Amino acid sequence: MIINTNISGILRQPISNKAISPATIIESIKFKNKILGDLFLKETDSTCTNQNWKKFSIFNKLEKELGYEILNITPEEKYITGANIFVIEEYRRKFGLGEVLRLCSIMHMIENKKDAIKICAKDSAVYFHSKYGFIPDFKDFYARDRLLEGIRKDKAFPELAKKAAALLQRVLLHNEKEQRAVCKEANNLLKRYIELAQQNPHPEKNHKPAYSVDMILKKEDVIKNKEFYNNLLEKNFIDYKI
After folding, report:
1. Is 223 exposed, middle or buried (0-12, 13-18, 19+ CB in 10 A)?
2. Which class for 239: exposed (0-12), middle (13-18), buried (19 or more C-beta within 10 A)?
3. Sheet-wide strand order for 213-218
4. What angle separates helix 141-153 from helix 158-170, to the nearest 10 degrees?
């Protein structure tokens, strides 16, 4: 049974003097957790002075905050920026609250007609985000070299290690055009590395990336795989369809 949240009736568009339409905010969502029961996800006050930063928190029936996500929804930008997802320690992993927060950001991407969500994932969180379709999107040369070096040293994937070593040799050319080309190839290589690592137990421990990773989830990919995301929404008893 899907709990009727009547999302279409609780979308809020704050008043703005700008010509650009303000951000559309889903103020409150009631969902159900098989262990914790009825829970609520709603916009809460953020400590950030920039009005484009929005905080969305999960509460139980006793109004205890179990976790939150902070998003930057700037009307002029074509994408949403995710600052961080946090769930208090005793509620991590087995309750799936991080998944609900991730779905919250995807819903806001759709409602605000944005092209993508961009995040910077900690090395320990890369596999969590990749489960929901995020792929590497780094452009920083230092991050690129650290990540390639990590793949080069991982003996579990010799073919990928060989390719990482070859890319590291190419960056020694110090040609700016070549450096950018290597970044693109390195993103694809890390994506493949993540896919292979996920086939093994505990990839976040045994194949943790050597650096934090800029990642992106494109709306076109969400639409293309909407059945996957709609199944997650239904699993969490959220009355929303992509």
Report:
1. exposed
2. middle
3. 28-33, 37-44, 53-59, 65-72, 79-87, 116-121, 213-218, 135-136
4. 140
Parts of the chain belonging to CATH 3.40.630: 7-122+213-235
d(CA 160, CA 163): 5
Q: Strand, coil or helix: what is 135? A: strand
The Cα 220–Cα 115 span in angstroms is: 7
The CATH class that applies to domain 7-122+213-235 reads: alpha beta
R_g of the chain computed on alpha carbons? 19
Residue 94 clears pLDDT 90, i.e. is over it: no
| Token digits of residue 68 | 């939150």
The secondary structure of residue 92, as a DSSP letter, is: S
| Mean pLDDT for the stretch of residues 162-191 | 92
DSSP 17-69: SSSSPPPPEE-EEEEEETTTEEEEEEEE--S-SSTTEEEEEEE-TT--EEEEE
36-92 tens-digit pLDDT: 999 999 998 766 667 889 999 999 999 999 999 999 999 899 999 998 899 999 898
Residues recorded for the chain: 242
Strands 135-136 and 116-121: unpaired
- The SS3 of residue 86 is strand
The amino acid at residue 216 is I
43 touches 105 (CB < 8 A): no
Measured distance CA(30)–CA(162) in Å, rounded: 49
